[in-house]
Design goal:
The chain is α/β, with parallel strands linked by helices. The protein is built from 18 helices and 16 strands. A hairpin with a 2-residue loop joins β15 and β16. It starts with 9 loop residues before the first strand and ends in a 35-residue tail after the last helix.
């Protein structure tokens, strides 16, 4: 591992897709970089278990403080009743007045404490759920991300995880502030004012039933609204990502029509939801007045004409109904809505977490086959990949010596990228053997494997950060002071990748902000940043997935000379490509067809002896000025190679 001097904090940036890494060296700091045996034995809890039973002591603390707050809340009107009756009777003692104030203050303090603890626990639970979801998203193909739209995946993190948290910071709080008062209220009315507890409880239950009905309807409306919102978010995300293409093809109007149609359905549904919500609020507000009126009637009936209620009785009664029970009655329907919404968010998140993932797997124990002092940097036997019953890669064997450059070529769809991503643990491929530097591994997702590999993709992933951060693949603290050595190392990596900021119209050099998804960069610029990132990572094995496809011929030539066959000449390199320029520099070439290795050897050997490879090369577009490179071959030359790039005569056959 190279030394990377710097001061200040950093955050490792994960991939933006379902693969386990992107255009960077692996890092064992990531929480997803676990062995397969660890992943199999330690599975994340379900969202419900995480929310209710993780840190159970704090969940019980919320309920305890809410119950004690209820006790103080019901004691306050009793103290007020005693003070008022004593005052009218000529007893001016202030003890009961201070007691009423103290009880009320204690109830408010405990309510705030309940809210603070529940909110804190909600944040902790959301972090836990987000970690589980992120681990699952990066764990392998399929799973949480799968083939679903980006907007749906974003909605899981932006909507459903906070929605699950509402079970703690809202539903749990409301549970304590509603259920306990609903129990204590009828008991207090019966104890203080002789109002039959079953009568007041029946009145509260009736009002609660109405609110439950309205709240349940609102929760269904809200769930449908979230579905429509997620659909719109997915469309907008898809539209924005492909805006230029839509404009070129003249599909802007069609895309807008679809978006407006979804937005209209969402708006109509929201209007229905708002009407039901206002009705729910009205019923909740009227409930207090109805319950107060019924309580006064029951109080007069219980006392009879010979024992009229005192002023303290009326004040205490109004306080219990109008203050103590008013808030629970207003909150009750919304508590149902929030709880149902949290439940649906948990179900959506659970379904996403339960989606099957295809883990890479080594079928046979490798412990007995360690080869000490082996010259092999990478050894793969029996690589097999099957998805949904379709064989995509079959019986692939690969042995690469330290410092070798191996190319993977073939027609579109032959499995080149799948092969490279299988080597990096991004597919559910199985292996008979997977070994690095003679040491057998439990699979390509082994943390030790990740520390030895760097990967550069064809897409050229960039993040919304500075050029320096993109090369380092870290979000850095703006106040970080960089050492001269670190800056030189970053600039050198960019220079080797043929990316000079001043020549690329980046006026702030390596501190230039790169827009999200590299929108202010060309495809070739993004690919070269990926190459610089791999150079900065300084891994001994470099996997290149057609990462020269977007650069021009001259830049490609310089990249091959200065980096791939230059600076990286002592590293093990495997590259999938459609460009023929680099093939004479390769020690070996694997020609893939239908997911199988049809031929293997040096370029001149394959071109002379393998007809299918020769036909493939003839169909590739090559610079005309380089056609003489194949003139010496026995078959008539119909292809060309970039002039000036010598064949590596010292390399060996695999």
């Amino acid at each position: 591992m190279p030394d990377q001097p710097r001061t200040g904090s950093k955050t490792r940036v994960p991939s933006n897709d379902s693969t386990t890494f992107e255009t960077t060296g692996f890092s064992e700091q990531s929480p997803i970089l676990r062995s397969k045996s660890f992943e199999s034995s330690v599975r994340p809890r379900s969202p419900l278990n995480t929310l209710l039973f993780s840190r159970i002591g704090f969940r019980l603390l919320v309920l305890a403080t809410a119950s004690v707050s209820t006790v103080f809340g019901i004691a306050a009107p009793y103290a007020q009743k005693q003070f008022t009756d004593g005052l009218i009777a000529g007893n001016t003692t202030l003890t009961w007045m201070f007691a009423a104030f103290g009880f009320t203050a204690a109830a408010l303090v405990l309510t705030q404490l309940t809210t603070w603890v529940a909110t804190r626990e909600s944040v902790i639970a959301q972090v836990d759920l987000s970690d589980h979801a992120l681990d699952r998203a990066l764990e392998g193909p399929g799973g949480l991300v799968g083939n679903r739209p980006v907007g749906e995946s974003v909605s899981l993190f932006a909507v459903d995880v906070p929605g699950c948290g509402a079970l703690l910071d809202q539903s749990l709080i409301m549970c304590g502030s509603i259920i306990f008062p609903f129990i204590a209220g009828p008991i207090a009315l019966h104890t203080l004012f002789q109002i039959p507890w079953f009568a007041s409880l029946a009145a509260i239950a009736t009002l609660a039933l109405i609110n439950i009905t309205l709240g349940y309807r609102q929760s269904r409306y809200f769930y449908r609204y979230k579905e429509l919102s997620a659909e719109r978010t997915g469309l907008v995300s898809e539209w924005v990502q492909n805006l230029r293409t839509l404009r070129i093809l003249g599909w802007i109007e069609s895309a807008e029509e679809k978006l407006f149609e979804v937005r209209e359905r969402e708006t109509r549904h929201r209007m229905i939801m708002l009407v039901n919500g206002q009705l729910m609020n009205s019923v909740a507000n009227v409930s207090t007045y109805i319950l107060t009126l019924l309580s006064v009637v029951m109080l007069l009936e219980a006392r009879g004409p010979d024992h009229p209620p005192t002023a303290g009785d009326l004040l205490g009664l109004y306080w219990i109904i109008g203050v103590f029970l008013s808030r629970p009655l207003r909150q009750f329907p919304w508590a149902i809505v929030i709880t149902m919404d949290a439940w649906t968010s948990m179900q959506r998140l659970k379904a996403a977490l339960d989606r099957p993932i295809s883990h890479p797997e080594v079928l046979h124990s490798p412990a007995s086959r360690e080869v000490r002092g082996s010259e092999l940097a990478l050894e793969v036997e029996g690589l097999h990949l099957e998805i949904e019953g379709k064989r995509l890669l079959e019986s692939i064997n690969l042995r690469m010596k330290t410092g070798e450059l191996v190319a993977i070529v073939g027609e579109v769809g032959s499995g080149k990228s799948l092969l490279l991503r299988s080597l990096t643990g991004s597919t559910g491929a199985t292996f008979q053997r997977f070994a690095l530097q003679g040491k057998p591994s439990i699979g390509p997702k082994d943390p030790e494997v990740r520390n030895l590999m760097a990967f550069v993709s064809q897409e050229g992933f960039t993040m919304s950060a500075t050029l320096r951060e993109n090369v380092r693949f870290e979000y850095l603290n703006p106040e970080t002071v960089y050492s001269a050595e670190e800056t030189l190392r970053t600039e050198r990596a960019l220079k080797l990748a043929q990316f000079v900021p001043t020549q690329e119209r980046l006026p702030d050099g390596i501190e230039t902000e790169i827009g999200e998804r590299g929108v202010n960069l060309s495809g070739g610029q993004r690919q070269r940043i990926g190459l610089a990132r791999a150079e900065f990572a300084n891994r001994p094995i470099i996997v290149l997935d057609d990462c020269l496809s977007a650069v021009d011929v001259d830049t490609e030539k310089r990249l091959i000379e200065s980096l791939i066959s230059g600076e990286w000449s002592n590293r093990t390199r495997i590259i999938a490509t459609h460009r023929m320029t680099i093939l004479p520099q390769c020690d070996r070439i694997l020609f893939l067809s239908d997911g199988q290795v049809k031929a293997e050897g040096r370029f001149d050997e394959l071109y002379e002896n393998e007809e299918s490879f020769r036909k493939f090369v003839k169909r590739e577009e090559l610079p005309k000025e380089s056609q003489h490179r194949l003139a010496a071959s026995p078959p008539p030359p119909v292809v060309s190679l970039v002039e000036g790039i010598p064949k590596n005569e010292e390399s060996t056959d695999g």
